[in-house]
Amino acid sequence: MAVSTFLKRSVASRTRLASGRYEAGLAQIERWGTEPHRDQGRAIAYQALGRTAEADAALERLVARPGTTTPLLVADVHAQRGDTDEAFRWLAVAQKLRREENPALAAAVDFGDGRYFGLLKDDPRWAALSDE
Question: Measured at the alpha carbon of residue 131, what is the angle toward residues 85 and 90, in degrees to the nearest 5?
Fold first, then answer.
């Protein structure tokens, strides 16, 4: 799937979730191109729908996946769930990976834009993380 198509679908599904249209958001998520991103979206959508077991299963699959972007996806799920301690723990993992294993990712990922982590911006840990 082209990056622009994925981004359009991602924004469309996130907008649906944010507006309380959880089933529509979940349907859009199922059309996403990569399984890790689908599990990220599923974990958020199922949680919003009260389908906790399915949300937890999607998060567990996501955590089990290797990759330098996976910690960011996991951090996003925890942020959306309101679990700020876990979100910051996973953001720290992502930051460590991007410094040590994939410096190019540092340019591609901007913690400061708040698109997915806006719920964390009022936490004092956010400023410390985004200053690194």
Answer: 30
Supply the range of the domain harboring residue 78: 67-132
In contact, 80 and 47? CB cutoff 8 Å: yes
Same domain, 112 and 86: yes
Q: What is the pLDDT of residues 58-101, one digit of tens each?
A: 999 999 988 767 888 899 899 989 999 999 999 888 888 877 77
Q: Model pTM? A: 0.80
Calpha distance 20→33 (Å, rounded): 23
C-alpha separations of 116 from 67, 99, 100 in Å: 19, 21, 23
Query: How far is 132 from 95, CA to CA, in rounded Å?
Result: 9
pLDDT of 61:
94
78 in the same domain as 46: no
Q: Which residues neighbour 108 within 8 Å (Cβ) at sequence distance 6 or greater? A: none
The domain tally of the chain equals 2
Q: Which range, of 33-42, 73-82, 100-109, averages the lowest pLDDT?
A: 100-109
